[in-house]
Automatic annotation (TrEMBL):
It comes from Arthrobacter ginsengisoli. Binds 1 dipyrromethane group covalently. It comes from the Bacteria. InterPro entries: HemC, Porphobilin_deaminase_cofac_BS, Porphobilin_deaminase_N, Porphobilinogen_deaminase_C, Porphobilinogen_deaminase_C_sf. Keywords: Porphyrin biosynthesis, Transferase. The modification S-(dipyrrolylmethanemethyl)cysteine is found at residue 263. This is Porphobilinogen deaminase. Tetrapolymerization of the monopyrrole PBG into the hydroxymethylbilane pre-uroporphyrinogen in several discrete steps. It catalyses: 4 porphobilinogen + H2O = hydroxymethylbilane + 4 NH4(+).
Length: 332
């Protein structure tokens, strides 16, 4: 059988999907083919919140799965809504890569070195809020576009195709902020002037992780269950799943779900396992950066249930400290 793998057609999506396809083929011993699916997020213009949130990048892929146009879909995990998708299962979370955000600035400048009033582009309310908290004197601009388009807004970065200054298009900003994982996957880490540590900027829930989704009937069967499959594809998907990554993103997504945080909510979350404990840290910011609530918890319950409870418990702490008062958590 040939396993059909659905993907968006952007350079980043194609790269990370091809890498996943190669791994599945190597483990499962079956041929694979990529199926290009166009999503609303690839077509519509404007800010992410105006388009309806992160779900615009996954809805068409999920429809393709349910309509048997592909067998597997590969997403950036941070694009997945936290609610369940009827008939579909998150079958594998491969080992997570760098979770950090990065600054890509002209002249190799770091965040602390940017002059007052410097223009910094991002399409993420989470990044914008934490940037304003760290540097309230910066001019944060809302931008969209694929990775290459956004990097093209900063003059002098390696790989840029032009040096022409065109407002809103090229070389018109002092810096942009992107995810390290995406730049790594497409080979553009040479554009990074600074990796922003998590004490400065907590990532989005699921950042640095991929989500491999399939129809529930094709998903790996769990111990003690009769649901799912024990077929070749299911076994290959199970082999790609990294348990520590799954625990971490389960905690992060549970926190988002309990906060009822929409795609435009300025919320950062990062979980990681260290020894016998799963740690989770989260932040909720006012969009203008003037108020921040940040806290952390840990658990020794190293199961998906334990990770879920950790996320819920930390969300309760943030809510008790007034998170809903400083940010519109339902923003979408």
């Amino acid at each position: 059988m040939t396993v059909r793998i659905g993907t968006r057609a952007s350079r980043l999506a194609l790269t990370q999907t091809q890498q996943t396809a190669d791994q599945l083929a190597a483990v499962g011993g079956f041929p694979v083919e990529l199926v290009h699916i166009r999503t609303d997020g690839d077509v519509l213009k404007g800010s992410l919140s105006q388009m309806g949130g992160t779900g615009v990048f996954v809805a068409a892929l999920r429809d393709a799965l349910l309509q048997d146009k592909c067998d597997v879909a590969v997403h950036s995990l941070k694009d997945l809504p936290t609610g369940p998708a009827l008939g579909l299962t998150l079958a594998a979370t491969p080992k997570r890569v760098d979770v950090r955000d990065v600054l890509c600035a002209r002249d190799g400048l770091k965040l602390a070195d940017l002059p007052s009033g410097a223009t910094v582009g991002t399409g993420s309310p989470r990044r914008a809020a934490q940037l304003r908290a760290a540097r309230p004197d910066l001019d944060i601009r809302d931008i969209r576009g694929n990775v290459d388009t956004r990097l093209g807004r900063v003059p002098g970065l390696p790989g840029n195709s032009t040096d022409d200054v065109v407002e809103g298009k090229s070389c018109d900003l002092d810096a942009v902020v992107l995810a390290a994982a995406g730049l790594h996957r497409i080979g553009r880490l040479d554009a990074v002037s600074e990796f922003l540590e998590t004490d400065v900027m907590l990532p989005a829930a699921g950042q640095g992780s991929l989500a491999i989704e399939c129809r529930s009937a094709d998903a790996p069967r769990k111990a003690g269950s009769t649901a799912g499959s024990q077929g070749v594809l299911a076994q290959a998907l199970a082999a790609l799943d990294d348990p520590d990554t799954r625990l971490a993103v389960t905690a992060e997504r549970a926190l988002l779900a309990r906060l009822e945080a929409g795609c435009a909510a300025p919320v950062g979350a990062y979980a990681y396992r260290k020894g016998s404990l799963l740690h989770l840290e989260a932040v909720v910011c006012a969009v203008d950066g003037t108020a921040t609530i940040r806290d952390k918890k840990a658990t020794d319950g190293l199961t998906e249930v334990g990770a879920t409870l950790l996320g819920i418990e930390l969300a309760e702490v943030l809510l008790a400290r007034g998170a809903a008062d400083i940010a519109d958590l339902a923003a979408s």
